Amino acid sequence: MLPPNDVEDVLSCLPQALLRVGPDLRVQWCEEGFAAKTGVTLAPGSTLLEALEPGRNLDALQRAIREQRAHSGHAITRALRQVRVQVKPTHTNGAAGAWLVVEPSGVDDEGAFSQAVREIARAVGESLEVDRVCSAAVVSLVRCAQVRRAEVFLYAEDDATLKRMAVSDLEGLDAPQDVFDPSEDPYRQALALRQPQLGIQRGYGDAVGSVFAAVPLCAPRRTVGLLLIYKEQGASFSVRELEMWSAAASQLAVAVENARLLREAQSALRVREEFMSIASHELKTPLTPLKLGLYSMERRIAAGQPVSLASVLKSKRQVDRLAGLVEDLLDASRLELGRLALDSSPLEVGQLVAEVVDHFRHAFERPFTVDVPHDGVWVLGDRDRLEQVLVNLLENAHKYSPAGAPIAVRVGRTAESARIQVQDHGIGIPGADQALVFQRFYRARNVSHRNFGGLGLGLFISHSIVKMHGGALALRSREGEGSTFLLDLPRMPAHEVRRLPRRVLVLDEDVHQEAAAERTLRAEGFEVFTVQSGAEALRKATHLPVDLIVLSTSANQSAVGTFLETFATLPRARPVPILLAGDERPWWAQDSAALCARPYRPEELLAGVRTVLTREKRRTLTPVESELPLVTPA
């Protein structure tokens, strides 16, 4: 008996879709509404392999059709929708084939969703610890829904990596974490689109071919991680299910974000309380002797007695210490607000180091050694801020080292950086603290407030300043054996250094001759200092290295003596060559000293200057330091 003509109208009323295929899996016939019911588009002549994902389920379906036997199971479509398939073999006009009854698979369980959400909410109410909240969530999902496993991955707070925080079970050989890669689909799409995505579980033992959902944990301000839900084999997710678990994931994301915010707030409060305690102590330390000193001076002045210079100097030291503490607090605040600006210009590192170390030599009875390359090491930086970093490193080295222990400062090069190394033989830094010493308000555990003052801001500020310069501040240390801090700054490109003007100091008792030499040298691109007083000239040029000194031989002994004495006491990174100007070498000059005519003749003066500078350049060495194993801040 033939079927009625309106049979397809009846089929459209049923949730199941009907399909007939041959033994080669090619479609012979499918009902008109097949795509609308199943989400799979098939046409006569196409093959099932084009519509279904490969896997065990598809293999079983193929065998049943080819072996002409009944079969009931699930298959996964190319659109990652799971469908239930029943196979009914048939023989029509001697042609083998099979009828397939296909229907969507999935569960819309409002009760399971409500129960899971309630349990997650209860866990959040009982604890705001991230680990406990995540663990409660995965257990609730497995217990309340048709879910085989649930996992929570969260972004680490300090970087963009995903770390698994909770899993419902780890039984057998099923280990999803071994193949989890957030750069692959569907994880990448879920994170990028902030929408749940379906995937197929591969390579996990008995669960091969089952479907899982990657549901992003979307808090109001950001995506905090992923919720992975693995179904039992043969089950799938309906659209409604994904909507429900997305809502549950959003609740979990908010709980995680709140837990983290609470932890950050508690940590900030602890830091604040500790800081207030330390700051109160540190600010009070200089204020107490300052107040007593001023009170003593007030009494002496009221009694008509003289005030000793020593008392004034003691009070001044306390004021300087107090000003330094306040300036550290202001710098820390500027860094937090992004308002610490740099005024960068070309800077020769060796000269800066020589100046700073020279100040420490005069202030403390301690041996300081300085080692710099013979030629200049140039960077582009803010001189005052980099001096602040060096002062902080040297103050720490002095503070934490025993009396009389040497402190060594070395300037060198790596492949692309200028490196300043400050080494002491003090108390050192414990290994567990080395990665934390650059944090704000942090002090190593072997540093007591009673014996070593400070707010714990110096290294934080120094590290921030160096980072703003595009450099790095690192350390090597061993407790009880001292510390070595290494400051790397990007070197200026060689072609830019070559364009910098060379600095010449002209010292001549005759203002007319001095002016003539200045005009000649400036016309050739030199930067010239011309001051008749040697002391004033050198003080004026102290912040940057002087490449050459042109010194008149006819100056009187008093002027030459003043110049030489001042020149010997001012900080210099390396010896400065001298070009003598006159008819003959004076008694105090070495036989190898270069000499040019005076009155100055432009060609001869320039030839003498270039000869001396070329001779010095040949003596320079430019070694490249090997990289050292360092501890750098996170």
Automatic annotation (TrEMBL):
Top enzyme class: transferase
MF GO annotations: phosphorelay sensor kinase activity
EC number: 2.7.13.3
SUPFAM superfamilies xrefs: ATPase domain of HSP90 chaperone/DNA topoisomerase II/histidine kinase (SSF55874), CheY-like (SSF52172), GAF domain-like (SSF55781), Homodimeric domain of signal transducing histidine kinase (SSF47384)
Ranges for domain Histidine kinase: 278-493
Recorded catalytic activity of this chain's protein: ATP + protein L-histidine = ADP + protein N-phospho-L-histidine
Residues annotated as domain Response regulatory: 503-613
InterPro entries: CheY-like_superfamily, GAF, GAF-like_dom_sf, HATPase_C_sf, HATPase_dom, His_kinase_dom, HisK_dim/P_dom, HisK_dim/P_sf
One Pfam family named in its UniProt record: HATPase_c
Protein name: histidine kinase
Organism of provenance: Corallococcus interemptor
Higher taxonomy: Bacteria, Pseudomonadati, Myxococcota, Myxococcia, Myxococcales
